[in-house]
Amino acid sequence: MTTGDGLQALLDRSWAAAGAAARGSWPEAQRMSAAEALAFLSGQRYCAIATVSPGGDPQLVPGSFVCAEDGTFWLPAVAGTARARSLRRHPRLALLVGQGVDAGHRLVLAQGAAEVVAPADLPARVAELARAKLGGLGWASQWLLMRPDRMLTYAGRPG
Length: 159
Hints:
The protein is an alpha+beta fold. Helices cover 30% and strands 35% of the residues. It has one domain (5-155): Roll (Pnp Oxidase, Chain A). It has a 7-stranded antiparallel sheet with strand order 2-1-5-6-7-4-3.
């Protein structure tokens, strides 16, 4: 399996499993391939992160991220944040990365199981990607790891 094969399979499964309304909003002709999605995500620094509070309320916060070649998302965090506490009770999150306007906009929507990871357990490749993309991360006392089980992409194509 080459880099991105698993991600491409996830993208294909996610689109096939989407309902008619979602496929209408995220049409097949506008989907990004795994390579396109990884290239887009590597150029973006911030995302919107959605979790569920301990009381069941939605929580939406901005955050930085790294997407590894296998499609996992790694988000630096400070211990004690509401989203980290929320993940301990409801170990799932969703995120949205978007950029651009009109025909040139791009979006990635991902959701899946998540967990809190200690900095010492950060894979070397992810640490390398994070340093290159996000700079000094000495403040990150933990990482949120999300393994998507659903990911939809959209690439506006000027027509």
